[in-house]
Design brief:
Helices cover 29% and strands 30% of the residues. The protein has 2 domains: 135 residues, 60s Ribosomal Protein L30, Chain: A; 47 residues, 2-Layer Sandwich (Alpha-Beta Plaits), CATH 3.30.70. The protein contains 6 helices and 9 strands, in the order H-H-E-H-H-H-E-E-E-E-E-E-H-E-E. It has 191 residues and is an alpha+beta fold. The strands form 2 sheets. Strands 2-1-3-4-5-6 form a 6-stranded mixed beta sheet. It has a 3-stranded antiparallel beta sheet with strand order 7-9-8, covered by helices on one side. Helix 2 packs parallel to helix 4 and helix 4 runs parallel beside helix 5. The longest helix has 18 residues. It holds the Pfam family SDH_beta. This is L-serine dehydratase. Keywords: 4Fe-4S, Gluconeogenesis, Iron, Iron-sulfur, Lyase, Metal-binding. GO terms for molecular function: 4 iron, 4 sulfur cluster binding; L-serine ammonia-lyase activity; metal ion binding. Its cofactor is [4Fe-4S] cluster.
């Protein structure tokens, strides 16, 4: 359900909730999935992202997100300089993504000191995003709630084992999506 803040838009550095706020959130999500500081990034821009990325600041917003900045941080405008100061190597590649689900889509490959990850995500308006794929696995995650993503072997009893560990740690599972490759657990934070 949309909230009033979804309708009036996010607190952000402009000019566009889709091309800057959403793009920044996508970059930040890529960093979270990587689990460490981003050292290298290849950013494949699709659709309107590919056509207007410089004019709308999509490039600066994605870089700011990869560096961990929020949509409202004024340093977003200086993300090229900040990327250089943080030794973040990056490349923007306007392209047509075969698997894109939305015209404001981006495929990002990130590397850190120890990890690598890739995501396909879309900015759907009002600063809202949808994470479509993580490391090639479909997830369709909106980033609304704290989430645990678990990759495991498909063996009998694994779901029972995973959910018991989560229960033992005082975490309530609000929703669960299980596919042969991936489990997505949307959870409440422990009180």
């Amino acid at each position: 359900m949309a909230t009033l803040f979804d309708i009036i838009g996010p607190v952000m550095i402009g000019p566009s909730s889709s091309h800057t706020a959403g793009a920044c959130r996508i970059g930040k999500l890529a960093k979270k999935i990587l689990g460490e500081d981003v050292k290298e990034a290849k950013i494949y821009l699709h659709g309107s992202f590919a056509l207007t990325w410089k004019g709308h600041g999509t490039d600066k917003a994605i870089l700011a997100g990869l560096l961990g900045y929020e949509t409202y941080d004024t340093q977003l405008r200086d993300s090229y300089k900040l990327a250089e100061e943080n030794n973040l190597k990056f490349e923007f590649i306007p392209t047509t993504l075969r698997e894109a689900f939305h015209p404001n889509s981006v495929y990002i490959e990130v590397k850190g000191q120890n990890n690598e990850a890739n995501i396909l995500a879309s900015s759907i308006g009002g600063g809202l995003i949808v994470l479509d794929k993580v490391n090639g696995i479909e997830v369709h995650y909106k980033g609304d709630f704290p989430t645990i993503a678990i990759v495991n072997k498909d063996v009998p009893g694994i779901i029972a084992k995973v959910t018991s560990i989560i229960f033992e740690n005082g975490i309530n599972i609000e929703n669960m999506n299980v596919t042969p490759q991936f489990e997505v657990l949307i959870r409440d934070m422990p009180s």
